[in-house]
UniProtKB/TrEMBL annotation:
Biological source species: Methylobacterium hispanicum
GO biological process, one term: glucosylceramide biosynthetic process
This protein's pathway: Lipid metabolism; sphingolipid metabolism; Sphingolipid metabolism
GO molecular function, one term: ceramide glucosyltransferase activity
UniProt cross-references to InterPro entries, sorted A to Z: Ceramide_glucosylTrfase, Hopen-assoc_HpnI, Nucleotide-diphossugar_trans
SUPFAM superfamilies named in the record: Nucleotide-diphospho-sugar transferases
Entry GO terms, CC: membrane
Keywords for the protein's UniProt record, in alphabetical order: Glycosyltransferase, Membrane, Transferase, Transmembrane, Transmembrane helix
Major localisation: membrane
Descriptive protein name: Glucosyltransferase
Membrane topology: Multi-pass membrane protein
């Protein structure tokens, strides 16, 4: 069988991927430089409740959560932590935070009620009964923020026509291990450029679990968290519901940290697969089209196929150089720590493998619980789901 026609196709896709990466780098600089709204100096700030659903003792959990307790925000603040298991070790972390911050209102909700197949959302439904303030800021437990985070998010939410706020995020390795750095690179050179391209060209309307801010009134108007109790892409669906109120989801010009804790390849593979399948369910066409973002692996395949010309390896080298330039540009635009660039080719090959495997099955794992994802994005719990569906064989 003559396969010589395939090589030019892969090489062309790689060149398109190079253009895509350089455009993303330019959009990143433009995004970070855009003016940020500010609340009037000395004006009263709305009261805020921060919701932090917890499940288990994650690495760096205390340090992550404490950044939300150390906010330079002059208005009233309540932090609500929630768990569904009375024996959850995260409870001890919350007690430590209470001791360290006696002047901050910290509430702990321990409630085992399950309201749907999405366990995180069930936790939020239980926590919502304890919200005391006008503005709600929901953020995942593995996020790290600066002291001015709350002030900037509330300022964005106060703008006309805004019904919700979400935040870009970057990877923060929790340790010096290779896998934590690979996880952080996946966010910084795969996720972040794709979001910048999608939003910059008006092709995407994202909403991330890193931060979702809205008013208590808006939550009531959309029917509460019950509306998304069975959805895999609960963050996206919450954003869609908030847009349905007639406003937009604003994204401030800064990025917050996502702690990357992976210490082995299976865990890294599983949670990236969950991300990929979430995106695939939300936007199947966009997910398939994102193949061009994998410029370096595409160029390598093109160079190894029969009929590859003398310039094939040059295209691969160009693709890798573009990836390094993209990484450096985003690091400077958002003030990130430099990455070990020698990991980029490994990262890109692993990302392409995970992207390809994302088409194979609808199996996902979250916090040790297995699910099957059906066509509309609904989660179906499966207690005996085979791990073979989650990780490639050696």
């Amino acid at each position: 069988m003559d396969l010589t026609w395939l090589s030019p196709i892969f090489l062309l896709l790689a060149v398109v991927g190079c253009v895509y990466g350089l455009t993303s780098a330019w959009l990143g600089g433009r995004f970070a430089a855009k003016p940020a709204p500010r609340l009037p100096e000395g004006a009263a700030r709305p009261s805020v409740t921060i919701l932090k659903p917890l499940c288990g003792l994650e690495p760096n959990l205390y340090q992550n959560l404490e950044t939300f307790c150390r906010q330079d925000y002059p208005g009233p603040v309540q932090v609500v932590f929630g768990v569904q298991n009375a024996a959850d070790p995260a409870i001890g972390v919350v007690e430590r935070l209470r001791e360290a911050h006696p002047d901050l209102r910290i509430d702990l909700v321990i409630d085992a009620r399950q309201h749907g197949s999405n366990r995180k959302v069930s936790n939020l439904i239980n926590m919502a009964e304890h919200v005391a303030h006008a503005v709600i800021v929901l953020a995942d437990s593995d996020m790290v923020v600066a002291p001015d985070y709350l002030e900037r998010v509330v300022a964005e939410l106060s703008q006309p026509g805004v019904t919700g706020v979400t935040c870009l995020y970057h990877g923060v390795p929790a340790n010096r291990g290779v896998y934590a750095h690979l996880s952080a690179l996946a966010i910084d050179v795969q996720f972040l450029p794709n979001v910048l391209m999608g939003t910059g060209l008006g092709l995407a309307k994202p909403c991330f679990g890193s931060t979702i801010a809205f008013t208590a009134e808006s939550l009531s108007r959309i029917g509460g968290f019950q509306r998304i109790r069975n959805d895999l892409a609960d963050d996206y669906e919450l954003g869609e519901a908030l847009r349905g109120l007639g406003g937009r989801i604003a994204i401030p010009n800064f990025s917050i940290g996502h702690t990357c804790v992976d210490t082995e390849i299976p865990g890294l593979w599983r949670h990236e697969l969950r991300w990929n399948r979430t995106i695939r369910n939300v936007d199947p066409a966009g997910y398939a089209g994102s193949v061009v973002t994998h410029a370096f692996p595409l160029a390598l395949i093109g160079a190894l196929l029969p009929g590859a010309g003398s310039g094939a390896l040059a295209v691969a080298a160009l693709a890798l150089a573009c990836r390094v330039l993209l990484c450096i540009r985003l690091e400077r635009a958002f003030g990130l720590q430099p990455h070990p660039y020698w990991l980029l080719p490994i990262r890109d090959i692993l990302s392409f493998m995970n992207f390809s495997w994302g088409f194979v099955s609808g199996a996902v794992t979250w916090k040790g619980h297995d699910y099957r994802v059906v066509a509309d994005g609904t989660l179906i719990p499966e207690a005996q789901l085979s791990k073979d569906a989650e990780a490639p064989t050696a």
